[in-house]
Amino acid sequence: MTQNRCVGTVWRATAPVLVVHGGAGRIVPEELSAARAAAARRGLRQSLAAGMTVLRDGGSALDAVIAAVLVLEDDEQFNAGRGAVLTAAGGVEHDAAVADGATRRAGAVTCISGVRNPVLAARAVLERTPHVLLSGAGAHELARREGLALVPVDWFVTARRQQQLTGIQARPELTGGTVGAVALDVAGHLAAATSTGGTTGQLAGRVGDTPLIGAGTWADDRSCAVSATGDGEALMLSVFAHEVDALVRLAGLSLGAACHQALRETEARAGTGGCIAVGPDGTVAMPFTSAGMFRGAIDATGDPRIGMFAEDTEC
Ligand code: GLY
What we know:
Layout: E1 10-12, E2 17-25, H1 34-56, H2 61-74, E3 94-100, E4 105-112, H3 118-128, E5 133-135, H4 136-145, H5 159-167, E6 179-184, E7 190-196, E8 217-220, E9 224-230, H6 232-237, H7 240-249, H8 255-267, E10 273-278, E11 283-285, E12 292-298, E13 305-309
Parallel strand pairs: 4-5
Antiparallel strand pairs: 1-11, 2-6, 2-12, 3-4, 3-7, 6-7, 8-9, 9-10, 10-11, 12-13
Helix pairs in contact: 1-2, 2-3, 3-4, 7-8
This protein binds glycine.
Glycine is lined by residues 178, 196, 198-199, 208-210, 216, 229-230, 232.
């Protein structure tokens, strides 16, 4: 099998650290308009600013990743919250997860429609139930009980996603997206959050890697926090995020090497994608085997680094 180039910077950051992504996929300069590139850059910056404000105020990694993902869910250019991709039936089904490295607990929701910010529903599962994953009507009912903002399903649907659904048969590469964040706080705790609308034209009821703890989302203070993006079926079959954890924690690989090896396992299942990851020592990895990945990072010492194309080596 031909291997895709696996690119993405690995660097040692200083706590607190926040890394975000806005999805991996066919993100190449020839096909991304200047306006869309600028809008993506702006969205990633705003997400980093929201999460870093939490971290700089001494807040937890969990609060920071949720703050960062909230911004991306509300930004309709990304495949999460409003602006998420549409199912084959033209509907919207959101998946989201949060993972707390300090407690090694997690919460997730799948196949929900009508909760404005799915990441808050995932948090409610983590903090307000004994469960890890709630689906559909049960997750919606929890969100209602917790007083989360509910909106009509039409509110999530944008003209761009309707056009994309119509064109999907002609250009199947127009799938992808997903948003996520990982963080290391000043107390040394890690967290991850991921949110998505899945894949364009997916069958109703399809569940992707995002809400499956250990596939698309993972955090353990002993090893790493990981948020994945890309071909969900391959990420699930390679149990991607837990593979990264196991390679670090049990096999002793560096975080960067572990991410690369786990992406190779995903590729062996005919999938491309990427991830953002941070370790307890501040190591940041943002590798991908897709053409590009919307990504950004910030730490205690510097300005935000933003990248989208394979050539953006500063990030
Ligand atoms: N990676 C997102 C999904 O496949 O649903």
